Amino acid sequence: MSRQGIDRFSLRSVFAGVADQASLALQPRRAALARPLDMRVLELLTARLCHELSGPIAAINNGVELLADEPAAETGGEDPNFAQSALAVVGDSAHRAANRLQFYRFAYGFGRGGGMVGSSPGDLARLLFEGTRIICDYAESTRALPLDGQKLACNLLLVGTEALSGRGTLALTDGPAGLNLKATGETAALPPETSAALVLATPVEALSSRTVQAYFTGLLAEALGCRLIRAAEPGQIRLTAVSLAD
């Protein structure tokens, strides 16, 4: 692979971007999570993040191995299209890994008072679902929220992704009723254990890698002075963060 090709997917390109962004006021909010994060929650979130990155990183490794195994030119067995195909695999996988890394960096790592570096949350969401079977509509009303409100929005998207099983539409809007996620798809559904985790009814010791995302999202809502309300109908799940002050 050429030096130019490697530089395209360097970590520097992943995190370069816009300067700090100012935030507006969103409903009553607190400076930090209302309750401390248990080590088990941190461990499960870390495992989840590694799982999300493992696929594209493994594909990058496979592409590099293909290049390493390419027949030498002097043997007369070189395929002129081989290197291009392998580079395409590496390039696409690096792009997906970078998009996921940036999204999760904001969704899990951004803290109140911190600066937003890189793409806006709405653009991070768009890039996360780029090339997938899920359409993400991150409305302007959501983009206008303060960054901690958009952090909750991004984590709601991850819960919605699980509800859709990889195919459908996610729509995020903010209005008088609160921040709202609508997940629409033929098989849209949230298991009872996920719904329980969303409202923090699940004991920490009973959390799993499948339910920890919902639990963490519930913690973020609580930190913003909100509670999550779930509504379901055939083919659609709606999650709304309602202010406890109302």
Please provide a written account of the structure.
- The structure is a single chain.
- The protein has nine helices and five strands, in the order H-H-H-H-H-E-H-H-E-E-H-H-E-E.
- It is an alpha+beta fold and 246 residues long.
- It has one domain: Heat Shock Protein 90.
- It has a five-stranded mixed sheet with strand order 1-2-3-5-4.
- Helix 4 crosses helix 5, helix 4 packs across helix 7 and helix 8 runs parallel beside helix 9.
- The N and C termini lie far apart (58 Å).
Uncertain segments are 1-31
Order of helices and strands: HHHHHEHHEEHHEE
Average pLDDT confidence is 81
Our measurement of the CA-to-CA distance between the termini, rounded to an integer number of angstroms, reads 58 Å
Count of discrete domains = 1
Percentage of residues in DSSP E strands? 5-15%
CATH architecture call: 2-Layer Sandwich
The total strand number stands at 5
CATH superfamily: Histidine kinase-like ATPase, C-terminal domain
The CATH class: Alpha Beta
- The CATH topology: Heat Shock Protein 90
Number of helices: 9
- The dominant shape is globular
> Percentage of helical residues?
40-55%
Largest sheet: 5 strands, mixed
Provide the spatial order of strands within the biggest beta sheet. Answer: 1-2-3-5-4
